[in-house]
Design a protein that fits this description.
heterodimer, A: about 110 residues, mainly beta, seven-stranded mixed beta sheet, four-stranded antiparallel beta sheet, about 0% helix, about 50% strand, B: about 120 residues, six-stranded mixed beta sheet
């Protein structure tokens, strides 16, 4: 089945130690998104790619970076994680259907910072 | 800027009872609206969407939603709730302006508890 895959599902990192979360998709969608969801809160968009074009949200901290080496893969890099970065990170994909975007989400990566 | 309000943080219903979850949105143009469901520790699953056309949309798992432009609402309904429907439900509006490429703004979510 076509899907959005996130690895790992659970990640524990130390304060200040760089960490990378990965997302892959078999849907061949051209748009990929990263959302951060803190406990008991709604998901919040960090950034997204339209093909290789990167779009950063204005309030996304510089500590968060992303890479998209090809259509299928997208990475979220947290350069120096703080305790406040503990959250669920959700990857989503969609296809431009005449500016209609239906997003499909992966299962998420739960990040713990110790 | 767009926004979504879900007035009910927590709703409890009995199994077999009907359900309505409220959602109000603010968006400057014709909205693209979505309902997602999230089980604990899981990702988001799309229940249904509204892009245009018929204002009553059908989704998966027996859910439906009605778009009412005059009330800026997109309420989710189900005639008979099952215990497996217990989860958190998010309403969202998609932004298609400029380089937004459909980015979603979510409401705060409504937690649904189902009593046997």
């Amino acid at each position: 089945d076509a899907m959005v895959i996130q690895n790992p599902r659970y990640q524990v990192t130390q304060f200040g130690k760089p960490v990378t979360l990965s997302c892959s998709q078999t849907l061949n969608h051209n748009v990929m998104y990263w959302y951060q969801q803190k406990s008991s809160q709604a998901p919040k968009l960090l950034f997204h790619y339209y093909d290789k074009d990167f779009n950063n949200e204005a309030d996304t901290p510089d500590n968060f970076q992303s890479r998209r080496p090809n259509t299928s893969f997208c990475f979220l890099d947290i350069r120096s994680p703080g305790l406040g970065d503990a959250a669920m990170y959700l990857c989503a994909t969609s296809r431009d259907q005449g500016r209609r975007y239906e997003q499909y989400f992966g299962p998420g990566t739960r990040l713990t910072v110790t | 800027a767009q926004s979504v309000t879900q007035p009910d943080i927590h709703i409890t219903v009995s199994e077999g009872a009907s359900l309505e979850l409220r959602c109000n949105y603010s968006y400057g143009a014709t909205p693209y609206l979505f309902w997602y469901v999230q089980s604990p520790g899981q990702g988001l699953q799309l229940l249904l969407k509204y892009f245009s056309g018929d204002t009553l949309v059908q989704g998966i798992k027996g859910f439906e939603a009605e778009f009412k432009r005059s009330q800026s609402s997109f309420n989710l309904r189900k005639p008979s709730v099952h215990w497996s429907d217990a989860a958190e439900y998010f309403c969202a509006v998609g932004d298609v302006s400029g380089t937004s490429y459909g980015k979603l703004t979510f409401g705060q979510g409504t937690i649904l508890t189902v009593h046997p």
